[in-house]
Amino acid sequence: MNIFKNLTLRQKKSIIGIIFISPFLFGFFMFFLAPIIQTVSFSVNELNISRLGLETNFVGLDHYNFAFSVHPVFIRTFFENLLYVLLDLPLILFFSFFAALMLNQKFKGRLIARAIFFLPVILASSAVIGMDSAQYATEILEQTSESVFLSGEFIQVFLMELQLPEDFIGYIIDGIERLPEVIRASGIQILIFLAGLQSVPDSYFEASRIEGATTWENFWLITFPLMTPVILINVIYTLIDLFLAQDNELVELIQDEAFVGAGYGVSSAMAVVYFIAVAFIILVVGGLLSRYVFYQE
């Protein structure tokens, strides 16, 4: 304990942070580091099964060259998947933030409403995926989204009257048509946003009301700045979730190449390229957004 007394506040916070992430570090070094190294090794070797076991013959970057130059759909699928993620990210974040704001209001049945929004996440989990519950939940949501008020034609007419750009209107309409997918992918984000909203001190809003601030001003001057750390967390989480989703075409392509395609070597090379690309995108996005994050001291 005497050691901690001589440390600065920043050093104490750093130690607490290391302790907080230590379970992740332990799990990474115990369960993930070896497979990552093995995947990199497979990507530069040709694998052969013999009587003595698994033999490897070094081939250098041949598998990478095959993935980029010979494989007919890897490059196209890679960029299509990247575009899909970048287009879905704002939809999921906006919907989850809006839903969290609504669910954070005080009204009767609030707990039931929160459970309903999180239900698609439970139904889509691996624990019940064999029961096709996610499909049932999607069908229910699709039937709900076909109501008059959420129909694409009704919203399109409304947006056109506002004289918004056609590309933006098309983006909104596409998001409405895919509302069941957006809801199913927003459960965790809604919970994180709710936790962030409930951590905002009520005293801030009480002081702003005394000064005559409006609800709109409270949102942009109090709620939104204090929620920027949570937004950053949800951006990173959503990117990882979309890049590694079970219905991700590129992930399915990499899996198929290992068993029914060009083999483990090419599949490993594709996985390494995808891993590096995802890590680079997350670092860039996280680095850019962190400049605008407000941390309350």
Q: What do these coordinates show?
A:
The protein is mainly alpha-helical and 297 residues long. It has two domains: 1-31; 72-290, Orthogonal Bundle (MetI-like fold). 75% of the residues lie in helices and 4% in strands. It contains 14 helices and two strands; from the N terminus they run H-H-E-E-H-H-H-H-H-H-H-H-H-H-H-H. The chain has helices at 2-5, 9-43, 62-70, 74-103, 110-123, 133-145, 152-161, 166-177, 179-184, 187-198, 202-210, 215-243, 249-260, 264-290; strands spanning 45-50, 53-58. Strands 1-2 form a two-stranded antiparallel sheet. Strand 1 (45-50) and strand 2 (53-58) form a beta hairpin. The longest helix is centred in the first third of the chain and has 35 residues, at 9-43. It is globular.
Q: Assembly state here?
A: single chain
Return the domain count.
Answer: 2
Secondary-structure-based class equals mainly alpha
SSE series: HHEEHHHHHHHHHHHH
Taking the alpha carbons of the first and last residues, their distance comes to 25 Å
> Biggest sheet, in brief?
2 strands, antiparallel
Mean pLDDT: 79
The number of helical runs is 14
| Share of β-strand residues | under 5%
Low-pLDDT regions? 125-134
For this structure, the CATH topology of the largest domain is MetI-like fold
CATH superfamily of the largest domain: MetI-like
In CATH, the architecture of the largest domain is Orthogonal Bundle
Helix percentage range: over 70%
